[in-house]
Design brief:
8-stranded mixed β-sheet, binds zinc ion, 245 residues, Rossmann fold, globular, alpha/beta
């Protein structure tokens, strides 16, 4: 039944993906959205997977592989980490990723990024990393990072495809279109580097306050909606013309 619906969805709104080649002679930046224990590590909290999940595991592996490559090339990397004040709920979700707990830290496969000089970590208290980068004085850590590094192409990976990844892409595309992010030209969302969580309808019906969240369906929709904003959706990412990443 579920797979039939997914097939129907993919027929009705087919998602064209492409192989994106990141030019070696320009600056490419990598954004990692919320690849933290509270969303990715089995049993790590209210919004963590209850059991091992193929889509989330692939997202972590692909993100770690790309992060290693970007660091080897000394290219700029920015990681958003969902981090909430314990007394400020984020509806409609239960308490999650409380600041100062391990839930709001990078997953073990990415923890090494904390020691890399080309990596900027940004703790955020909302879905959208762009909004979460705003400072009280009106400046924006993400905007400054793009400009300072003269980033022309942004590669985006992380979780959740349909929530924090999509929100960040939407804000970034609007800001780029208004000229706030020069010299940024391209925003690429790498599909195998993204994931979302799974709450099947029958589980949601038996859980007070839970929204149904079928994983494959909403992952597809998240990518599709990013494409509707003008992002490229990549199923493969290469550096230069030859080197496979
Ligand atoms: Zn949150």
């Amino acid at each position: 039944m579920v797979s039939q619906i997914i097939e129907l969805l993919k027929n009705e709104i087919p998602l064209e993906q492409e192989c994106v080649v990141l030019a070696e002679d320009t600056v490419n930046g990598l954004v990692l959205v919320d690849i933290i224990n509270g969303f990715c590590t089995v049993g790590a909290g209210n919004l963590a997977p209850r059991e091992s999940n193929r889509q989330i595991s692939e997202m972590i592996n692909e993100s770690a592989r790309l992060a290693r490559l970007f660091c080897e090339k000394n290219l700029p990397v920015m990681a958003f980490l969902d981090s909430h004040h314990p007394n400020k709920p984020e509806d409609p979700y239960p308490p999650h990723c409380i600041a100062g707990t391990d839930e709001s830290n990078l997953v073990p496969a990415l923890r090494w990024l904390e020691n890399e000089t080309n990596v900027t970590l940004r703790r955020k208290e909302c879905f959208d990393g762009y909004i979460g980068s705003a400072e009280e004085d009106g400046s924006n850590v993400f905007v400054d990072w793009v400009k300072k590094n003269k980033i022309r192409t942004l590669l985006v990976v992380g979780i959740c495809t349909d929530i924090c990844v999509l929100d960040f892409v939407c804000s970034t595309m609007s800001a780029k279109n208004r000229g706030f992010l020069k010299p940024l030209e391209n925003v690429v969302v790498y599909s195998h580097g993204c994931a979302t969580f799974d709450v099947p309808l029958e589980v949601a019906r038996n859980t007070k306050g839970a929204l149904a969240h079928p994983q494959e369906f909403l992952h597809h929709m998240g990518l599709y909606m990013a494409k509707e904003r003008g992002a490229k959706i990549a199923n493969e990412v290469l550096f230069g013309a030859v080197e496979k990443v």
